[in-house]
Amino acid sequence: MPELPEVETTRRGLAPHLTGRKVIGATLRRADLRWPIAREVETRLPGQRIEAVRRRAKYLLLDTGAGSALLHLGMSGSLRVLPADTPLRAHDHVDLRLEGERVLRFNDPRRFGCLLWQPPGEVHPLLAGLGPEPLSDAFDGDRLFALSRGRSAPVKNFLMDQSVVVGVGNIYAAEALFAAGISPLRPAGRVSRERYARLAEAVRRILSHAITRGGTTLRDFISPDGAPGYFEQELSVYGRGGLPCPRCGRTLRQTVIGQRASVWCASCQR
Ligand code: ZN
């Protein structure tokens, strides 16, 4: 599943090819993905110039004077800018036709992605109520500490709560808690301010590193034959249940927390 670093890498890969370019039409090969595709993609977007390609949480926004196309890659979606005559492949559901004989092509085998519309000056309901971006100044240990007081839910669930901070999925929550030495099962309200400062720092460092590494795969976004551009992670604990802890060598435990598999070291994480 694309996590925040893949979505940011996608944004960085697409932006130079889309910014300033006019959309001349939209070809929808089906009416819905996860939800019905917004009517405005056909009625408002054509004729508009893309002013910016932004990311909010794991959503991408193509801003125009008439509003913004709002995209989510879901479980399996990918976007590519291609020559307009590139043959279709299975699951190529949407083309936004661009001036200069190009298309922005949305492929999504499992159809958990979406293509919606945000009118100018409005915030789409899916984006309302989201917490701060993890790489922004609004996210820090003090915020985690303040919001967590009195909460008995496991700190891992708290960290993955999108109203607390956006874009920290299962992989990065597990990795950041390991880096900060905090057990994923510890009640959120019983983590100190100092340890939350370490956790926030770990979240920033790990996400930034993943985004930097993603930069090496950017060419895939404009290659018709390229892989979707997701990248191998350097992971310490995620997906490594039963293997030795990279820090102390003891066997990593796997526990289900909030219906998600969580791997952690009972010795290094308290
Ligand atoms: Zn350990």
The tally of helices reads 6
> What is the rounded distance between the termini?
29 Å
Q: How helical, in percent, are the residues?
A: 10-25%
Low-confidence stretches: 216-231
Q: Which term fits the overall shape? A: elongated
Overall structural domain count: 2
Average pLDDT over all residues: 92
Give the C-alpha Rg.
20 Å
The largest beta-sheet arranges its strands as 1-6-7-5
Q: Give the CATH level 1 class of the largest domain.
A: Mainly Alpha
Q: Tally the beta strands.
A: 10
- What is the strand content? 15-25%
Major sheet attributes:
4 strands, antiparallel
**If classified by CATH, what would the architecture of the largest domain be?**
Orthogonal Bundle
Order of helices and strands: HEHEEEEEEEHHHHEE
What CATH calls the topology of the largest domain is Helicase, Ruva Protein, domain 3
Bound small molecules, which ones? zinc ion
**How would you classify the helix and strand content by structural class?**
alpha+beta
Topology, element by element:
Elements: H1 4-18, E1 23-28, H2 40-43, E2 52-56, E3 59-64, E4 67-72, E5 78-83, E6 92-98, E7 102-107, E8 114-118, H3 141-148, H4 155-159, H5 170-180, H6 193-214, E9 253-257, E10 260-264
Antiparallel strand pairs: 1-6, 2-3, 3-4, 4-8, 5-7, 6-7, 9-10
Helix pairs in contact: 1-6, 3-6, 5-6
Bound molecules: zinc ion.
